[in-house]
Amino acid sequence: MQFKGHIPSSGMLVCNHLSYLDILVLAALAPCLFVAKREVKHWPVFGWFAKLAGTLFVHRERRTQSRETVDRIEAALQTGALVVLFPEGTSSDGHTVLPFKSSLLQPAARQAHPLSAALIQYALRDGDVGEEVCYWKDMTLLPHLINLCSKRSIQVSVHFKQLRESNSDRKQLARQLHAEVLQMKYAAAI
Q1: Does the pLDDT value for residue 63 go beyond 70?
Q2: Cα torsion at 146, 147, 150, 155 (round to 10°)?
Q3: Does residue 129 sit in helix, strand or coil?
Q4: pTM to 2 decimals?
Q5: 33-56 burial, b for 16+ CB within 10 Å, e for fewer?
Q6: What distance in Å separates the CA atoms of residue 186 and residue 143, rounded to the nearest whole number?
């Protein structure tokens, strides 16, 4: 594992999302709370760990519950916690960064909490990251996990960037954060 930049200790951390491994990586770097889709709560092993870690679960099909989740994020930020959000709303193969959804960024837009962006990237010597590390499409957890555990090593790099100024409009903030993560991705590729 390698990281670049200042690892935040409080505020909101917005990151691209590739795999369930992202949670383990970020949790190994700093104590944090995660925001995850409600379905994760029922995943074998990972759901149990997520509940124990205090994960804030979002019921994405019920837009009315978004306000409740925003309030819970705000309460966690007020305690000085580091709250990790994956605003793409789903994971991908890592070739691009999907557009960021803005609804859960409201606490960062309306308050003066520290705000950071992060980029996670994986590398494999003996396989295809998009198919064997990233967890996306219609993949099934157990076969993916078994294959992942068969790998000799997985390299991960995390780039952090603290935002000096953020936008008070959550939709513009989503675009700003997306641009920051894309900029880190392009810089890492050079």
Answers
A1: no
A2: -120
A3: helix
A4: 0.93
A5: bbbbeeebeeeeebbeebeeeebb
A6: 32
